[in-house]
Please model this.
Amino acid sequence: MYVSLEQAVAKLQRGEVVAIPTETVYGLAGDARHAPALKQIYALKERPASNPLIVHIGQMAQVNDWVSEFPPLAKKLAEAFWPGPFTLVLPAKAEVSSVVRAGEPTVALRMPAHPVTQQVLKASGLALAAPSANKYTQLSPTTAAHVEQSLGQEVAVLDGGPCDVGIESTIVFVAGEQWQLLRLGMVTLAQIEAVAGCSASHCETVATPKVPGQHVLHYSPATPIQLFDHRADLIAFSKQQSNSAVLLFGEDAPVDVPSFVLPNVAQAAAEKLYETLHKMDALQVKTLLIENPPNEADWLAIQDRLQRASHKLN
Ligand code: TXA
Ligand code: MG
Model:
């Protein structure tokens, strides 16, 4: 069910859940201080209660409502990457709902850049808990239609067009002067290092939070995926597997099965990655044959998602 911005805001203020666009993926949003809304998010996604939610805020001043410490390093990173596809995990204030943080001592915060998300946050005056708006372990939605396909027609969806980052935010845990990467995204390790002035820490004195959502099998289409390091192997395999579809990066190649090509620039490929996987999944072939993208730093987040999505076969 599609709703207008005004309807979305009214629903959120009443404690209902609404799928909203962000620049990374669509999120299933609810008032982060309202336990029934949070519980409905977990129920609709069929997500285990042990997997915490990201709290989305519209302004820097809101950080202190959620965290017991906002170390200078975290502030520096927030100022550099917010609003944007970047999430900070920080020690939570005692009063932060244990539902939103799934009993963890930390809370995840993100300030999205999408103008529609910003309007929803501003008009509602709320902080919004929002995981990706898909069933647990499925492929994340990058269009309003993907949300309906995964969660059904009853879910209220605010259509903000296709997401232009296209994969989930980079997540960083900050403890004092140290930081650690918890999930790769399109804010890269090199960008974080440049702002932090130091590399990610492996210091054992920092209690690293577990990232309950980082199951190996995640971000998956229903169709099994097989990854290929060499294009020639993929093409040869496609000749034996006529009930397959092919995904390549850069240039197209002549194959006898349906084929898709993503650009050889990482940002542009990320934008279309899930949309393309959704399309390939809809073909209902036996296997998706996917070329590994270039082995370069820019592509690490895309490689990570493809590895997770392909785990069923590997
Ligand atoms: O781009 C995104 O981050 C999207 C949009 C909607 O903001 N959200 C998203 O949420 O991807 P979700 O719930 O699908 O993934 C959030 C990840 C999960 O793996 C979760 O376990 C982890 O963040 N997470 C959340 N709070 C955490 C915490 N306090 N400590 C460690 N990991 C946390
Ligand atoms: Mg998710």
